[in-house]
Structures are given as C-alpha cells and as structure tokens.
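Subject: sequence -> structure tokens, single chain

Hey, anyone have a minute? Need the predicted structure for the following. Not urgent.
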Amino acid sequence: KVPVLLTHGKYDTMRPPVIDAMASMLPKVWRALLPRSGHCSMIDDPKLMNDVVGDFYNSVEVDGGESFKIPDEAVDPGKVPLGPLEAPKPSDLGLAEAPLSLAAVAGALPWPQLGLTLFLGMVLGAGLSAIALRSSKLHGVSLNEPLGA
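Reply:
Had a minute. Here:
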C-alpha cells in the first residue's frame, strides 16, 4: 500500500534482477530506468534522478502517488534486455565504418580533458603521499616496515 519508487541505471549490470524481483512483489510500485546511468545513478545522472525522485515525493504528498508519472526519458523499456554494455559502433563515435585505425580512434578521444584529469590525479596523489609521509614522521611510524613489526 505504501508507494515505492525503484530506480536503476540502464548500464547497471548488478541491480536489474533485484529491481525485477522487488517490482514483482510490491503492490504500488513505479520503476524508473535512467538511460545515461550505471550503478550510481545519482552520480551518473543527478538532474534526471533528482527530477524523478522530487516529482515522486511531491505526488506522494499530494495524493499518495496517484498522479505520479515517470518522465518519458526514464520509462523502463520493458522487453528490452538490461544487460552488460555493448561495444559502441564506429558510427556512434562519429567515425567512418571503415576499419578503425589508431589515428581515427585517437582523434575521437577528448585528449585535453583526459590529460587534465591525469595531471590532477598525479598532483593529488603526490600531495596525499606527502601528507602521509609527514604524518608518519610526526608519529614516529616508519613507512618502510610492515605494520606490527
């Protein structure tokens, strides 16, 4: 009798069987499939997740969920299998259907963003390492010996 909203990402390989089982056992349930999400829908597609959950809460407050409608963008396709990702076709990546070359693939990748991400990761890793080293010296712990030695 309690309204329940189940959400999951289209590319989640872990939860669809659980969502199927739960949906079949609950009397008043809505199922939202987030098309641009994997296992962490609230991180992968926060706007759609917030819109769906917000609309659901509003509807439950107003009329117990009777007026709630899952947005078309998040409607579960039903008979379409929700399994692991398929490899994208070259045309999906804006590449010609001809055999792929390393140069063609390299041209399609967002190199500036990738480079910046890797650089920031290295800086963050170096900073955390420096903090750990300083902390170990302050506390008289050697990082070269196994714990408990």
